[in-house]
Please model this.
Amino acid sequence: MSRIARSVPSLAVAALLVSVWWGLVIATGSAIFPTPWQVVTGTLELVRDGTLWGHIGASLFRVGTGFSLAVVVGVPLGLWMGWVRGAFATLNPIFQMLRPISPIAWIPIAILWFGVGNASPIYLIFISSVFPMIVQTTAGVHTIERRYLWAAENFGVSRYTLFTRVVIPAALPQIIVGMRIGLGVAWLVVVAAEMIALRSGLGYLIIDSRNAGNRYDLVIAGMIVIGLIGLLLDGAMRLLEGLRLVRWRYAHQD
Amino acid sequence: MRTKIDVKDLQKGFASDKGPLRVVEEVTFSVGDGEFVAIVGPSGCGKSTLMNIIAGFVRPDRGSVVIDGAERSRPDSRGILISQHGSVFPWLTVRENLMFGLDAPSRAAKADLADHYAAIVGLKGFEKSYPHELSGGMLKRAELARALVVKPEILYMDEPFSALDALMNLRMRNELLRILAEERHTVLLITHDVEEAVHLADRILVLSPRPAKVQASFEVALPHPRKLTSPEVQELRLAILRELGVDRSE
Model:
């Protein structure tokens, strides 16, 4: 009940925005900019001919592949950099320099290296989501409290036990934060990447709808779908924060 | 009584903004096998640094810590440190925490031993709980059980109960005495609470303000259970407080 009550204000603001939008389109008599209802019918059209699911599937596949590669590379690399001082001193300056380069800036190079197939957007997603994961994982290891490391040392456990029972679980909450940021960035980037080339994906849908006859109703439909899926992806990552294994870190935020 | 811990001439300083800061200076004492020695001193006198050196976590600038005749330079599971803020791993359950340092042939054997010690400290039924689901007192019990389960020869306790409220503090002391009566360990306790020291220890060392030095030593020749309100206890308490410079003309 309180959940519903809490979402009333944001629903009201959304309704207000939609009515302002609708009013402005009618008032200005725009021939190109669609009314909310035209967006709804446009979306239904995409659902009915099945192209929407194809585009969503293509985008999710690219994000899934690029993001998974970034997890597989970024998390172990971050753990290593967090634990080994020399690795951090060597690699951190390089990554800090590469990190602020917008993934969009990589597009020409990605096309040069990987062509215009799936590999390009997957590479862009990888490059954009791997850095936040490295940074967060490293920070996660660096912020392990000394008392826990001392306790592990005190019991004289093997390096393997130290890593699997102390270092990784202690850093896990930060690793999850990194994954959340990484997935958010990945979703931003896939849409941008698909606008350049390719024949599928939500980014392609938006650019193609504009190019092929100014179908702005489909442009906005595509934008809304992107927003909704982004919300779902973030919600899925938030579920990870609810795992019993990491709740100690987030417990005070409830 | 055989000497268990022999601390000789320990010195430790740190660099600070105002030049070198001497924290521990020429601390020499020994602890017998199975003896319970409490070290009391004013706060900030370097007690914890001293404990960290003796437990092997911090290297002294000079001097040595000899345990069973061999010099100690690294921590190991023969002596477990229990500190004020605790170090029960929050990502492991009580049982997993207790199994952490265990070296048993099978997982089942480890779990049995862990559960046995959980029961000893009164945590039966909480084996699968995570630390954030426990109260402060239960957390201390888990910490104590995790130390005991590896059968250490020495317990290093650095203000172990000072984060607890007065009632829980007293209960944990009684609990500790009950366990020590069953399993004899050598205990080195650091505390600022004189009453706690008199309640628990066989011998009490008083440290001077920084740099820490052993200033006085008191034998506590009172049988357990000790009645904290008895005249002997009160007399000893006042003598130690006087030594600490707290003059209470009562």
About this structure: Chain B has a mean pLDDT of 91. Chain B touches chain A at residues 55, 57, 74-77, 79-81, 83, 85-87, 89-92, 96, 100-101, 130-132, 150 (CB under 8 Å). Strands of chain B lie at 3-16, 19-32, 36-40, 62-67, 70-71, 79-82, 154-158, 186-191, 203-207, 214-219.
